[in-house]
Structure formats: structure tokens, C-alpha cells
What does this fold into?
Amino acid sequence: DSGVTQTPKHLITATGQRVTLRCSPRSGDLSVYWYQQSLDQGLQFLIQYYNGEERAKGNILERFSAQQFPDLHSELNLSSLELGDSALYFCASSVVGGGREAFFGQGTRLTVV
Amino acid sequence: TQLLEQSPQFLSIQEGENLTVYCNSSSVFSSLQWYRQEPGEGPVLLVTVVTGGEVKKLKRLTFQFGDARKDSSLHITAAQPGDTGLYLCAGAVGDSSYKLIFGSGTRLLVRP
It folds into this structure.
């Protein structure tokens, strides 16, 4: 158990809909990362938050947005969903500084039909 | 754009064989991590290397960080079926606002 909690574990929704994925980081971790992993692909970095502020951005679509709340949990919002958005979405957390290792949640499997 | 290239992409070997996986980039990383991911699960951290030339051992796994901190290798001795999985390297770029860039992964199958 990495200590990172993601909900829901599975999500099936229709094209055009909007969903929210939730992540609770490990206790004490200030940084949260979101990654997308399509079938048999590597991890694509979407966005990073540190203590409530956006710190780094990757290849995140304009239809996607995220935020980190004062209690440090984070949400990834995906809107106007397309079939190609079907993927595993991972959240990871870390303590900035030190080894900078990231600890991953178990992911949310999103299926857009 | 920082890119991490992993090779080989796929590797199928017999139990007991040795193997090496490579992670290369033209960028310098402040640290590099190796993760292992099993189907349907999140990546699990194996090791972090920070210093150029650093070598770390984890049982049958040996990790090395290149002198210039641009590349790394993972060597597995006497592979076992339990080593099967997706191996990912990730480089940390930046300082206070850093991000982790992942390689595309090496999918390893160890046949009994």
C-alpha cells in the first residue's frame, strides 16, 4: 500500500460527459502529480501541483483541468469526453526535495463508450 | 522537451538468464528512479539514484546512473518469473518546480 488513495477505481461513461477523479496523497506529501496511461503505453505526465499551486504542466488537453485543495487532496476533471480518453489515470504524490520519489495510487480506469 | 528512451521495449527470456535494460536521454537529470508496474496496478518505486556513476543493488537487481546523469541501466541477474512486469525509468527535472518524466517502459516476460 503506497498510501495514495484514488477514487473511483473504475468509471464507465459516455462520450461528451464530464467526470471527476479524486486523489488523496500520502500523509505529509505536498506534491501531487497526474499521469495518463493508455493501453500498453508509458506514463504521460499531465500536471503537477505543490501545496495548492500548479507547478508543472505536461501534455494536458484543454478539456482537462485539475486542482489541489487546502487539505492537499486533488481532483482531475475531464470534460467533453472522447473515446480516446479511455485510459488509466494515475495520481502520485511526493515530498519535494530529498530523493523526489513519487508514490503512486492504484489508478482510475476510465472507459468512455 | 526532455525525453527518456528505454530499450529494449520488449524482452522475453528464460528463467535464470541475465538481462540489462537501458534508459537514455540527452538531458541531465537531478535524479533518476526505476519503477516496476504490474497489470492494473500503479508503478512501484524500486530505487532512486542521484549521483553520477552511482551504483545501487537490490537483491538480484543492479542499478547504475551514468557519470553525466543522462542515462541509467538496470541489470537483473538470474531472472525469475516473479520479475515479470513493466519496468519504467523516470527522471526528475527542475529544482523547486520539478516534474518526473517517464520513459516508455520495458515489458519483461520471464518464462519458467
